[in-house]
Design brief:
Elements (H helix, E strand, L loop, with lengths): L1 E4 L6 E6 L2 E6 L7 H5 L11 E3 L5 E7 L2 E10 L4 E7 L3 H6 L1 H4 L15 H8 L11 H10 L5 H15 L1 E2 L8 E2 L3 H5 L3 H6 L4 H11 L2 H5 L6 H9 L6 H11 L13 H10 L6 H8 L6 H10 L20
Antiparallel strand pairs: 1-2, 2-3, 3-7, 4-5, 5-6, 6-7, 8-9
Helix pairs in contact: 5-9, 5-12, 11-12, 13-14
Length: 321
């Protein structure tokens, strides 16, 4: 099947060949596809995310139409993005390709005075805020990242997808689609424990997946309503909701309040203060509303970090001996 459609004068081409659906899209704006999609990766060995030597990004997702694998390859010389997809969710993934790559994002809405931040904004002009439209896909790993080191959370995510995920359709050998809501809910306690997930976090995941249809509706909601929908789940706080909505909704104002490092980064970069709390961070970010998360992304892009004092966090071990 071949079709032509587009918005704002841009055209697309979709073709189905032997189980592979293909789309070529011309963004019409500067785009760094790899860095735009990078926040969706949960660690360097994420079974649902892969990069290959040709510069392509591969993602395995569970869409409303079913599981699917998406391969995205930017061709800057041509000003196009080439995407291929496999599985029942292939067409859903291709239809949402522009949104995934930031077509609905508005980075120009953040106006900055001359200085290091504006310089960083210029250097990262091709980095957009991704929007997957899939809430549970980002919510579960965000819950796993609560109150633990990133290495711990990534290991848990990797273990759970490897053992209980669905093999990704198409040629992406070894990739996994995250379990369905029902499969998450049926995981026995000892499997959570073996993956290094404590009872508090596993219970939060189970509560969330039992409300999956209601939570997925948040993908179409505005900032305030979406936060309210997610934080209504016991165990899902502002930090977890923000980390989810940054990815599922491309929310430019979703600040990760409660983050271990972010307040110090913001305080140091904007006020020269080596240590800050959440209230001080939010006060410094207030003038940048509704682009507070976007500004935090820019601060990270500058490579700035607050002075470090004391040892790093010690990883926990919830797996026993």
């Amino acid at each position: 099947m071949v079709g032509e459609a587009g918005a704002g004068g841009r055209r697309r081409r979709c073709t189905a060949v032997t189980g592979e659906a293909v789309r070529r899209w011309r963004p019409g704006f500067a785009l760094d596809a790899a860095r735009t999609l990078l926040p969706l990766r949960r660690g360097p060995a994420d079974p649902a995310y892969r990069t290959t030597g040709d510069g392509a990004v591969w993602r395995a997702s569970r869409t409303p139409a079913g599981v699917g694998t998406l391969r995205v390859l930017a061709r800057p010389a041509e000003g196009t993005v080439e995407a291929s997809a496999w599985g029942p969710g292939a067409q859903w993934l291709l239809d949402r390709l522009p949104v995934l790559l930031g077509a609905e994002d508005d980075p120009a809405g953040l106006l900055l005075p001359p200085g290091p931040l504006r310089d960083a904004q210029r250097r990262t002009a091709g980095v957009r805020l991704t929007r997957t439209g899939l809430v549970l896909e980002s919510l579960v790993p965000a819950i796993l990242e609560q109150k633990v080191t990133t290495d711990e959370a990534y290991r848990s995510w990797r273990t759970l997808l490897r053992d209980f995920g669905t093999p990704a359709p198409g040629p992406a050998e070894g990739m996994r689609v995250s379990p369905s809501a029902r499969e998450w809910a049926l995981l026995p306690s000892w499997e959570w424990h073996r993956a290094g997930v404590d009872p508090k976090r596993s219970a939060t995941v189970v509560r969330a997946v039992r409300l999956a249809p209601r939570l997925e509706e948040a993908a179409a909601m505005g900032h305030t309503e979406a936060f309210a929908r997610l934080t209504a789940v016991p165990g899902v706080g502002i930090w977890t909701a923000a980390e989810t909505l940054q990815r599922s909704n491309g929310d430019p104002d979703a600040v990760s309040v409660g983050d271990y490092h972010l307040p110090n980064l913001v305080g140091w970069a904007l006020a020269g203060r080596p240590r800050s709390d959440d209230a001080q961070m939010l006060a410094l970010l207030e003038p940048y509303r509704p682009h507070r998360h976007r500004l935090c992304r820019l601060l990270l892009a500058t490579g700035t970090h607050a002075p470090r004092y004391g040892p790093r966090l010690t990883p926990n071990d919830h797996r026993g001996r």
